[in-house]
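Dissemination and training. As part of the outreach component of the grant, students in the summer workshop were shown how a complex can be specified as a set of sequence lines and then modelled as a single object. The example used during the hands-on session is reproduced here so that future cohorts can follow it. Participants entered these lines:
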Amino acid sequence: MSITRRRALVVASSAGIASTFDLIPRPSLAADEIKIASILDESGNLAEWGDPMAKCMTLAVEEINEQGGLGGHQIKYIRYDTQSNDQLYAQYASEAALQDQVSMVLGAITSASREVIRPILDRYKTLYWYSTGYEGGVCDFNTFCSGTTAAMVVRALIDWAVPALGRKVYIIGADYNAPHATAKFIEAYTKQDGGEVIAQVYYPFDVSEFGDAISKIQAAKPDIIYSMLIGAPHLGFYRQWAASGMKGKIPIISHFFGGGNEEVLLTPEEGDGIVSCYGYWEDIDSPENKAFLERFTKRWGSNHPYINAIGMGGYEGTKLWWLGVQKAGTVDRVRVIEALRSGISWTGPSGNIAIDPQTNNVIRDVYIARAKNRRMEIVKRVPGMRPLFTEQYCNLIKHPTTQTQYLP
Amino acid sequence: MDLTLIICLDILNGIAMLAMISVGLAIVFGIMGVINLAHGEFLMLGAFAATVSTNAGVNVWVSMLIVAPLFVGIVGLVVERLLIRLLYGRMTDTLIVTWGLSLFLVGAVTTLFGYTIPGISAPLGSVKLGVYSFSAYRLVFTGLTALTFLVIWSFLKYTRWGIIARGTTQNPEMASALGHAPHRVYAITFFSGSAVTGLAGGLIAPLTGVVPTMGAIFVAKAFIAVIGGGAAIVAGTFAASSFFGAVDTLASFVWTPVIGQAAMLLAAIILLRLLPRGITGRFLERRI
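and obtained this result:
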């Protein structure tokens, strides 16, 4: 085959294209920095949660870098803002995995967005961390869930409330899948503790008038109201409840309350006394939490909103992942996953968190707390809560190739 | 007996809520034919004005009844002069501009105040009805809504300004020929509509969660009430709110709140199928 001028031109230009677009994937060089990414809604409707999460994650990365990183390699933190638009999740997950080739992605606030990026990061073999409290049941070798699961906090709350407050429980919740599913846990645990759920009422998200709810509850006379109301319109329930003179007459418990800083949005006259349960509260009295709050205030100013469990997730997730990296001595995905599953346990601002190798979820402390003067007063620390529902179905030790979510 | 009474109060309250959040939109739509998609954000501004000024030490009634309407009225006037004025008669363009405005207002308030501001609680305490107790503020709210409607109605019916405004609605050219510049009427109308929306925002501040994104929840209901009511501002909004509010509250009581809302939407669909121009397009035609 003779080399013509035209053919030489074609070969040369295609080589040029190949080198320009870097078609041959190269592993990132060891001398470079370690890249991690967050994919969070830092603007739009969910910014209330995405913004503090990203700030907590930034703080964790800066602490790791100050301590020298991994063998002198610093972490580079890439922030993707999904703008409260679920369509951007798929795009940014692919970009983080393929273009930036990050070692870990922490992200998604809602379960819906998590289920968008989890399969993408599985496909592109990028370690995925989900740090928000959620309904439970995620069972995926490549995914670590460090937040509380619904079964965990419901169990803690019911075990505390039914003996202390009474046996008749009235459920009032928002009308979407999580409260309906969680009600099954509430019913089961209440029954085990010798109580009963006497009614369940669900309200669409945009309802802000709760006159009928209050009258119905007054007629039913329960011992406990279990609220799974969520969002600003539903705050109307707590406000109208208090305005009807009912506050303190029937206690309200809720593992949703506080996740949106409801204790600040309500006045003390309305909110005080409502009992909630999460994996973290700013009011936890421990040296680790005190040190964390000092560093956070120094970095982001003292004028920050109350840090709740959702924001704290960004800090916890990054720190836990880093313990795995240190143990593995590398950021290689498989070796980090192995290290994380070999029994990582960490005591941080939110108490003790240990990774459960059976589920890639966590065994952690949770805190029952009561609203008081726009803050949350810790009532009880419940140590070592297991991922109760998830562990019934998920066994990654026996079936490591599982990539699914079991639903109650 | 107690239960019947409490259900009646709940229904009245549901009607008042719907009527109060809708009437500002109805004024602007009825007189100017302008659809303000930032209506929900105007409500939010009213709620923020009341909350922020109460927290700053202003008396809660002054904040709700004076500060909130005045502030939102002024915002409305500025918006009318800068944006709406340039787009008279261009319905789609106004929709897009006011939608953009709603996004801007949410962003601006978030930047200034953050996502969470300390709320204010309802004044006045509760009243006892047998085994039930009912918020006194919600009774006052219902009363204030009735008063607001009465004031708007008498203003449009009996004052010189009201007659000019109605005349401009029916025939702007003729009103203009008689020496009443429509653009002045429109500016004052937009100010008044915004102020009433601000009042509604102020009054709902102790009843619901006050956050920058709260407007989106109310705007859909307000639109359903205004479209269902038709052209007449007071009679239309009142009729539609009574119908939809009663359907919603009653169905919520008898069945569940989800069915309540579904019943309200179904009622709206049937109503608009039978009366495409709203209730006052067919009945009470010449009413205000």
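Confidence is low (pLDDT under 50) at residues 8-30 of chain A. Students were then asked to discuss how this feature might be tested experimentally.
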